[in-house]
Amino acid sequence: VRRRVPLLLASTSEVYGKNAADKLSEDSDRVYGSPLLARWTYAAAKGLDEAMTYAHVQQSGLQARIVRLFNTVGPRQRGSYGMVLPNLVSQALAGEPLRVFGDGEQTRCFSYVGDIVPALVRLADCPEAVGRAVNLGGRTEISINDLAARVRDVLGSSSPIEHIPYEQAYAPGYEDMRRRVPDNTLAGELVGYYPATGIDEMIQAVAASRSRELIAV
Question: What is the pLDDT along the chain (217 residues), one digit of tens a residue?
Fold first, then answer.
């Protein structure tokens, strides 16, 4: 604000919480669980980030844009913090069981970093995006069960798929969202964002990167 520097705030689809609407638009309701659970505390904190940014746009004239990212994946991504695709790829390459948490029927829309970064650059220069939150997500809804099966098929792996109960994988009281599907209409209108990379291409890119890392070691 003091230096009049434009801001691009990286927010997250977590702000929508447990809202399982058919497509989550930027004005969709947020549905949270208990504030004593870390997941919803994180979601609430990111929502406050957005609120503070918007307040500065309105009161201080800050040239700020907000982007809500949905499950972005790509080369060099590690499986830290439960990032499911890198974990499944690493397990398949090692011939280990593909670990799927819960019943595996929860769905996500994965987006490829090669589609996301150009959209971020365009949004940072888009005057119409100032003071707005914009979804950037993938085009294809897929269950984690189907994702694990695709990883196995694309990589030619014989790894079995193993389901792990949430209570064994996380702290007591862990909550997951059953569905998270973005509405990318606004990003398309503002900067021509239309995700082009398919799930199989994402798997191949993550696997190629992981294989190079293993060879280097």
Answer: 999 999 999 999 999 999 999 899 999 999 998 888 888 999 999 999 999 999 999 999 999 999 999 999 999 998 776 689 999 999 999 999 999 999 999 999 999 999 999 999 999 999 999 999 999 999 999 999 999 999 999 999 999 999 998 777 676 667 888 999 999 999 999 999 999 999 999 999 999 999 988 787 6
Nearest CA to 177 among 51, 9, 15, 56?
Answer: 15
Query: Any idea which residue has 């870390």 for tokens?
Result: 38
β-partners of residue 4 are: none
Name the DSSP class of 182: B
- Nearest-CA neighbor of 135 among 85, 52, 65? 65
Q: Which residues are catalytic?
A: 42
Question: What's the pTM?
Answer: 0.92
